[in-house]
């Protein structure tokens, strides 16, 4: 996305994740990339980030929420059997993957230029879709890659290009839809 010179990006990095690649991008695009750290389990942290966006940029044209977690080193591990399920892990995953994004949308609604029925009623509607990136070669998928069929493990760059194509072509009639990396609608 930073290849588009007219875009300024604001990335919210989860407090559990330190990604050197993000810091490298910040150094490469210091005027066009702003990284804010937040904790999706604390509403005041989300509110502080939204206020920072409002003060610095006034509004947003696009929100891409990619904050989901499956594991956090020494804190949260994927459950592979029922014997490994822990309530605290389930609650943390739910807070970050479900509650946090809803709070972000609620707090950013005033900052966005104009989630599904509400969006369509605005003068300048925005689109809310869900995306599945496919199986991407990252630390998240590494423990499960041995079962991935040939040709179905994607590079980050390939997956991002596919998702951006879907995002850039989404229309208001796509609200509430769930799309796979290849543009196919996923029933849900």
Automatic annotation (TrEMBL):
PANTHER family: NAD(P)-BINDING ROSSMANN-FOLD SUPERFAMILY PROTEIN, SHORT-CHAIN DEHYDROGENASE/REDUCTASE. InterPro entries: Fungal_SecMetab_SDRs, NAD(P)-bd_dom_sf. The keyword Signal applies. It comes from the Eukaryota. GO terms for cellular component: cytoplasm. SUPFAM superfamilies: NAD(P)-binding Rossmann-fold domains. This is Uncharacterized protein.
